[in-house]
Design a protein that fits this description.
Uridine Diphospho-n-acetylenolpyruvylglucosamine Reductase, domain 3, Enolase-like, domain 1, five-stranded antiparallel sheet, alpha+beta, single chain
Length: 293
């Protein structure tokens, strides 16, 4: 049995933030895949939980009037993977979603929980970084919308203010329309493992040149990162083997890889270079170019 002090189950997001504001010691539980592990290990003895499971509509994936795509924070990875809206418009996010754990975990784990944990290995984070995703955060003081790139503070730490809960993720039309991408997750084993390194690339190719490209890395620094220098270098460059190799080198410069039991710093740096190039080539193919140019 788990040592749980209490479980609160609000029906609306407004009720949830009121409860959270009244008791800041509450632990938010979304899908519960990480919280239950901590409970099993005795890290949250006597914890009082605030479950978001019963909040209607918080798992909805929908197209807004302006063409933006809104993903409820309680949407599971299985919902992302099976969503017609996601598969039609942002296939790279579906690709990232299906890489997360096994079917049982994907059925429970939520995109909001994945982000809010602040884990550098979060499978959804690199793709959402590359898509310039916005986060809609709700508190008793109202709501605010911030870029996901400003949300991560450090390993396991995010910039949530008191009583604040992640309500949804928004991807504007300009950040997915006519862009194609690829997500690569590299693990020590082939199934149900945490990433040793992950790469997300989205790009647009026009007249044989990169007119837009975004590159994001996971487990390459204390937080997920964008490779801004690599992106700036690539814009208006001819799609060629030399250009792609140089982009890989610029991506490596953006990283702050470290040694861990999953892999050495040197091996991670090798992966950053190689997998960035591989993801770019696949994204180019999907964009209608030739990834082997």
């Amino acid at each position: 049995m788990f040592d749980i002090g209490n479980v609160l189950e609000p029906k609306t997001i407004d009720e949830a933030v009121e409860m959270y504001n009244s008791n800041p010691n509450l632990k938010i539980i979304a899908g519960g895949t990480d919280v239950l592990i901590k409970l099993r290990h005795g890290e949250m003895e006597g914890a009082e939980l605030l479950s978001l499971r019963n909040i209607k509509g918080m798992d909805e994936i929908k197209m807004l009037e302006d063409g933006s795509i809104s993903i409820g924070a309680m949407a599971s990875f299985s919902q992302l993977f099976h969503s017609e809206i996601i598969n039609k418009n942002i296939f790279v996010l579906s690709e990232a979603a299906v890489s997360m754990g096994g079917p049982q975990v994907r059925n429970m784990a939520t995109v909001g929980g994945n982000i809010s944990n602040g884990a550098v290995s979060a499978d959804s984070a690199p793709t959402l970084f590359a898509l310039n995703a916005l986060l809609k955060l709700k508190s008793v003081n109202g709501e605010r919308i911030i870029p996901i790139t400003e949300f991560y503070e450090g390993p396991g730490r995010v910039r949530l203010q008191p009583s604040e809960i992640l309500e949804s993720i928004i991807i504007t039309k300009e950040n997915y329309n006519q862009l194609k991408g690829n997500y690569i997750k590299y693990c020590n084993r082939k199934a149900m493992d945490i990433a040793m390194l992950s790469v997300a690339v989205v790009c647009k190719v026009e007249a044989g040149k990169f007119s837009d490209i975004r590159i994001a890395l996971g487990v390459a620094a204390p937080t997920p990162i964008r490779c801004s220098e690599a992106e700036s270098y690539a814009i208006n460059k001819e799609v060629s083997e030399e250009t792609i190799k140089n982009i890989g080198q610029y991506a490596l410069k953006a990283s702050k890889a470290r040694d861990s039991w999953r892999g050495s710093k040197a091996y991670r740096e090798h992966l950053i270079d190689v997998l960035t190039q591989r993801a770019i080539k696949e994204a180019i193919k999907r964009a209608g170019g030739n990834g082997n140019e």
